[in-house]
Specification:
single chain, about 100 residues, Glutaredoxin, four-stranded mixed β-sheet, 4 strands, globular
């Protein structure tokens, strides 16, 4: 199975998926830490995370998959939401909580 197919299966296999650097308990960059924090503050208790530092093919492939150059990347119900900057804006407006509540 190629990288794009693996990414697609991951994104569609769980309601909330975050591609990040590191893990929720040990994020490897500030943006990934902030993304996890935003998810927790939005009431998310179950999130599937993918540590892109463990797989260079996924690290590059996820950027191509969403045509989005940065990590982290959030997917809800198979739909690309955005990175930390978009998550922050959505959280501040209440939209992130709505999207996550609709999972």
């Amino acid at each position: 199975m190629d990288t794009q197919e693996r990414i697609k299966q991951t994104v569609t296999g769980s309601p909330v998926v975050l591609f990040m650097k590191g893990t929720p308990t040990f994020p490897q960059c500030g943006f990934s830490a902030k993304a996890i924090q935003l998810l927790k503050m939005s009431g998310v208790t179950e999130v599937t995370t993918v540590n892109v530092l463990e797989d260079p093919e996924v690290r590059q492939g996820i950027k191509e998959f969403a045509n989005w150059p940065t990590i982290p990347q959030l997917y809800v119900n198979g739909e690309f939401i955005g990175g930390t900057d978009i998550m922050t804006e959505m959280y501040q407006s209440g939209e992130l909580q709505q999207v996550l509540g609709a999972k």
